[in-house]
Amino acid sequence: MNSCDFCTMPTARWLYIPQVRALAALMTDEGVVVPLPNDGRWKACDLCSDLVDTDDMERLIARALTTMRTLGVPLPDGGPDLEFMATVVMTNFATVLAGVPTKQPL
Ligand SMILES: [Zn+2]
User: What is the pLDDT of residues 3-25, one digit of tens each?
Assistant: First the structure.
């Protein structure tokens, strides 16, 4: 069973490998830099794969946040906290969407 690295659903069927491996990191209010987990290989389910292929970052983020909420991950209901969360997700996804990743079946 492969879980999708975008939406976490256990139905990943595709593997994306960015041409350039990039890592994103966050800096907390205390100035601590926290690298985001990303091994340079991104598994995707059919739905997320469509969004990656069409470079639809907005729907990809919406889908990721929705499934996290469904799975019981505590997320803010809105406002700056949710915006921050979306920015974190977007920054991490940008490391694979930037450039043209190679795509292969899992
Ligand atoms: Zn997915």
Answer: 999 999 999 999 999 887 777 77
